[in-house]
């Protein structure tokens, strides 16, 4: 019995020593940051804005790995099955961690069980965008056109935020629309500007350049308040269709079991990056609010959003696939 106790204590001390040694030498190689959306999308743009400061804070190098498609399912699975050593970070969103568990009967990852939350990056909301070629000036005219010609207006669906916004809009306005699935936001916005589709609930980070060029126009934001960077764009409720409020969030996660010391270091690096005035200004230009959070606060937020999105999806009448 004494021999077994000594062996057990030796193993415990060896494990603790290895964990401390790893944390002290971290990082000793590049850190892969998996983003479940295409380059140029909202989450990708936001992370590229803060990576220089995060590199500085952790004295390392983050390498972005874009894995778009399937509402982030493939990327989330890769991240969930990666070694919990601090060298894989997942840029999760409301799609991967709030909506997918309620949209699909079976997922290859557990949104709450397979990840350790690190911290919040920011929040924004979908904006109803139209191509400049389409002859409507406001949301009221969109509703009138949709009622006049049911099912003829095409809405691009690029992720769960655009899906839920579109379905909530259909329900609230009492109109019939046609959903067109896209693999990425940038592709949908490009087609929007070219007149291949009529509308998309997208993000300002993706559409900002085309908005400035006058090729895409924002009509309304699906949130309770206007975006600070676009104060002239009304909310959907202000434009005459109440009941369409969808919160987009972006946060960092690690595979479950990542050492707590590393989680703490990454959280501190993230907070420091988000608190820079330059970061706040850059985020504001694309309609994103920087939201630094301690890890424990973020854990509670993720759980709350999980329940909230489940309820919204059920209220919208969307059946899991």
Structure description:
- This protein has 321 residues and is an alpha/beta fold.
- The protein folds into two domains: 10-123 and 248-315, D-Maltodextrin-Binding Protein, domain 2, CATH 3.40.190.150; 127-221, D-Maltodextrin-Binding Protein, domain 2 (3-Layer(aba) Sandwich), CATH 3.40.190.
- The chain contains eleven helices and eleven strands.
- The strands form two sheets. It has a six-stranded mixed sheet, sandwiched between helices. A five-stranded mixed sheet has the order 7-6-8-5-9, with helices on both faces.
- Strand 6 (154-157), helix 6 (160-173) and strand 7 (178-181) form a beta-alpha-beta unit.
- Helix 2 (42-58) crosses helix 9 (260-274) and helix 4 (94-103) crosses helix 11 (295-315).
- The termini are far apart.
- Mean pLDDT is 90; it is low at 10-22.
The geometry reads as globular
Strand percentage: 15-25%
What integer is the average pLDDT?
90
Distance between the termini: 54 Å
CATH architecture of the largest domain: 3-Layer(aba) Sandwich
Class by alpha and beta content: alpha/beta
Biggest sheet overview: 6 strands, mixed
Give the helices and strands as they follow along the chain. Answer: HEHEHEHEEHEHEHEHEEHHEH
Strand segment tally:
11
As for the number of domains, it is 2
Helix content percent band: 40-55%
Rg from C-alpha positions? Answer: 21 Å
Can you tell me the CATH topology of the largest domain?
D-Maltodextrin-Binding Protein, domain 2
The CATH superfamily label of the largest domain reads Bordetella uptake gene, domain 1
CATH class of the largest domain: Alpha Beta
- Strand line-up in the sheet with most strands: 2-1-3-10-4-11
Low-pLDDT sequence parts: 10-22
Give the helix tally. 11
């Amino acid at each position: 019995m004494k021999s077994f106790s000594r062996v057990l204590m030796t193993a415990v001390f060896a494990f603790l020593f290895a964990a401390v040694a790893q944390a002290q030498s971290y990082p000793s190689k590049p850190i892969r940051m998996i983003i479940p959306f295409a380059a140029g999308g909202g989450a990708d743009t936001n992370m590229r804005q803060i990576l220089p400061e995060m590199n500085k804070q952790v004295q390392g190098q983050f390498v972005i790995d874009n894995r778009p498609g399937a509402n982030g399912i493939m990327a989330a699975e890769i991240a969930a099955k990666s070694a919990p050593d601090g060298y894989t970070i997942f840029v999760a969103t409301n799609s991967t961690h709030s909506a997918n568990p309620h949209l699909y009967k079976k997922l290859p990852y557990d949104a709450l069980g397979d990840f350790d939350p690190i911290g919040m990056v920011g929040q924004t909301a979908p904006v109803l965008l139209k191509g400049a070629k389409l002859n409507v000036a406001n949301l009221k005219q969109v509703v009138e056109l949709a009622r006049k010609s049911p099912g003829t207006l095409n809405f691009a669906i690029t992720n769960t935020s655009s899906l839920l916004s579109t379905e909530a809009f259909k329900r609230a306005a009492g109109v019939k629309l046609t959903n067109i699935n896209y693999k990425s936001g940038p592709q949908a916005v490009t087609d929007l500007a070219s007149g291949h589709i009529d509308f998309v609930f997208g993000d300002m980070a993706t559409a900002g350049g085309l908005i400035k060029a006058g090729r895409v126009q924002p009509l309304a934001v699906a949130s309770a308040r206007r975006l600070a960077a676009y104060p002239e764009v009304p909310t959907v409720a202000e434009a005459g269709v109440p009941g369409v409020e969808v919160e987009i969030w972006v946060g960092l996660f690690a595979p479950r079991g990542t050492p707590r010391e590393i989680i703490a270091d990454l959280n501190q690096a993230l907070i420091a990056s988000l608190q820079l005035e330059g970061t706040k200004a850059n985020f504001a230009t694309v309609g994103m609010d920087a939201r630094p959070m301690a890890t424990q606060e973020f854990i509670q937020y993720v759980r709350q959003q999980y329940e909230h999105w489940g309820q919204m999806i059920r209220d919208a009448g969307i059946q899991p696939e």
